[in-house]
Amino acid sequence: MDATQLAHKANDIRKDILVMITEAGSGHPGGSLSCTDILTALYFGGVLDHDAADPKKPGRDRFILAKGHAAPALYATLAHAGYFPTEELVTLRKLGTRLQGHPDSNLVPGVEVSTQLGHLLGLFVAGPVDTRDFFQAVEIIHGQGGLAVLAHPFEHSRDGARLAPAVPLLDGVEVWNSRADRKLRDANSLAASFAQVCRLPCFGGSDAHCPQEVGNGYTCVEADALTAQAVKTALLSGCARAQGTRSRAWYAARSQLTKRRKTGAKPLSYVKWAAFAAKCCAQDIFWRGD
């Protein structure tokens, strides 16, 4: 594309960004619009070596979006580049869709690294937390007098630096998750070290997806009274410890099978599930890791 064509393409992407955020009812237009020209030049100006028909092409150039709030700009650029239909852009931030508030490399083709800060647990909340934006969710949780706890922060990545923006806002870290070590064996130990360095209280959870997993992770609290306020005070003061045992990997495979059945998955998806299930069974046989 020449300079004129690039300018037109950038304007088309800007229009889509505004439509996406308006349709979603939330988002960050400023950060997205400010980087549109850069993304347009990279993807359409012959700067990046990329191929929408083969997103995982060996030797490709990799673009990593450090500011996850600008996800709408990246989504719109990737859609215009042919990575997925532009009609999908209006599903931004909607439940059950892949275009969430921060890019997820496991869901969206063309996204190289997930920049989402992770899952968030809201404890002692009385009302809904109607947002998928991490920072907005923390604000809502605190507004209800609740505690914001970062859940299994190292399940997919060992990069602790990405979590730095969240640290001042957190009330604790889940350092034991009975499922977290399926992908990274030291996920829980990394979380424990992170909590210690950041001086944040420790929590435990089972992350149960089926009844057999309930209770595989928990938080032991030493409180002055059996009241919600006393327990919350004890948690914030660090008078708690996380404990648990590793869940069987087969339960993860079983929950994935249930998900496919409910969503009417195609036959190829079941073939992939069979390979995943075999891997889970092997983990249960050769590595308990309790």
In short:
By secondary structure, the chain is of the alpha/beta class. The chain contains nine helices and six strands.
Task: Please render the helix and strand layout as text.
Elements: H1 3-24, H2 29-34, H3 36-44, H4 71-80, E1 119-123, H5 134-143, E2 147-151, E3 172-177, H6 187-198, E4 202-205, E5 217-221, H7 228-236, E6 240-244, H8 249-263, H9 267-286
Helix pairs in contact: 1-3, 1-4, 3-4, 8-9
How would you sum up this structure, described in words?
With 290 residues, this protein is α/β, with parallel strands linked by helices. The protein folds into 3 domains: 3-91, no CATH class; 119-244, TIM Barrel (Alpha-Beta Barrel); 249-286. It is built from 9 helices and 6 strands; from the N terminus they run H-H-H-H-E-H-E-E-H-E-E-H-E-H-H. The mean pLDDT is 87.
Keyword list:
single chain; alpha/beta; TIM Barrel; 4-stranded mixed β-sheet; 9 helices
> What strand line-up does the widest sheet have?
1-2-3-4
Low-confidence stretches: none
Strand residues, percent: 5-15%
Please state the second-level CATH architecture of the largest domain: Alpha-Beta Barrel
Spell out the helices and strands N to C. HHHHEHEEHEEHEHH
- Count of all domains: 3
Radius of gyration, whole Å: 21 Å
- The separation of the N and C termini measures 56 Å
- Characterize the quaternary organization of these chains: single chain
Specify the CATH class of the largest domain: Alpha Beta
What is the percent of helical residues? 25-40%
